[in-house]
Amino acid sequence: MGVLRRVRDWLDQRFGWAELIAPLKKKTVPAHRYSYWYFLGGITLFLFLIQVGTGILLLLYYRPSANEAFESVQYIMTQVQFGWLVRSIHSWAANLMILSAFLHMFSVLFLRAYRKPRELTWVSGMVLLALALGFGFSGYLLPWNTLAFFATKVGTDVAAQVPLVGRWLMIFLRGGEEVTGATLIRFFGFHVALLPGITTLFLALHLLLVQRFGISVPPAVEKEWQGSSRGAREIRFFPNFLLRELMAWYVALGVLGVLAALLPWGLGTKADPFAPAPAGIKPEWYFMFMFQTLKLIPAKIGFIDGEQLGVLLFAVAGLVWLLLPFFDPEGRGRAQRWVLGAGIFALTYIAGMTAYGYMAK
Amino acid sequence: MCPHHALADSEAAPARRRFVEWLLGGGLLASVVSFFYPLVRYLIPPPTADLGSDTVVAGRVGELKRNTGKIFRFGSRPGLLILTAEGEYRALSATCTHLDCTVQYRGDLHEIWCACHNGLYDLNGRNLSGPPPRPLEAYDVHVRGDEIVVNRRRGA
Prior knowledge:
The complex is a heterodimer of chains A (361) and B (156). Chain A has 361 residues and is mainly α. Chain A has 15 helices and 4 strands.
């Protein structure tokens, strides 16, 4: 290990390496019966890194044009060695990442980790979730298959329902009046350049805030610790927590590998803009609750369009959700019960509507 | 615990520990290999089907003026067809042997020229001056009806 030591000394003499990593050596993580929920953020990060890696690999063969996109994905899946695996991992990890981000969000909410001083950590996390949904929506279109084509038509048409700027927004998203090859190029640009850039910034901010404030201890556990003679229980971040985290990542990778290999992601049929939408057209599961809600709202309610009302309601709900920590900065009392209620309602609503969406014709 | 037992434990521990370390290390190594093997295989592009046969129609009689040349497709690579000042057809590979640029016929020099690094070849493809290290591959030319047919030479 002589070389490693010399490299470390070299860095130390120039950047004060030892001083830089000193806080990391002292960093601790609280240990209690809810500790396992902490892993969800890390697993989401891990899946994101998988997406970056497999996404770069897919870029080696993917062609972003309406004439070639479907064929190039087909080529990846049938001609390129292990191409089917790389594409299947990219699709599975995308879905698992959104799932783990949702679980992470709800665990933060129910363990009341959003309270002061971590309000902005919550807000940056919500921005990251929105970006992840953007990744999902834009990436879904890229294979240019029938399902994705119509899901994008519907999705961008929903954007058109936004008051005042809706039409402009839809034309901006589609790159014209209709979903065409121009839309594909745009979505490709969003998916591989714009969203990764913005996500990197917010991810850095999110991690910096987590690092700055440390990991939250749930109020109930805090109270127990204050009452007991043993006081707070902690484990060291390095190496104890890090090794546990890496083990969790390893398990996540195993699950991902099994899913991707045993249930390879399909491709469907090539999109035909002049064919009627096939029966049973559905968005990605994480948009299902919104899709189903919009289906249930009547066409006209009073003087306002049903669709518009739905979009408006989701926008208000999203805004309230984004600002949730500011209604309950202390994490106690009546405000806390309201936030808890909102969390349970949201979880029930999303789960219920998603299930309904899959069961309804 | 009696001293005898303590001694036995301390002697047995390193062997057990080594075994566990081998098991863990071997498992990790195996998984690393199983990640990187597909990755490396994925990076190597599948071979493209060679479109070229050994014979191609490079042009039609009367298409070229004397002392000019044109590029034709020979499989996936370019070829150069020349009608010399004397009225004789010549066909060669158009890929410069220096760094893969595409060469052209220079009527003013009566030679084949590569614009990238000023390489010169004669009409038989021999490298005359400049950086090219080897001659251009020459092909056989036949006129069949009004078609100019180019053949790769056997064994070349």
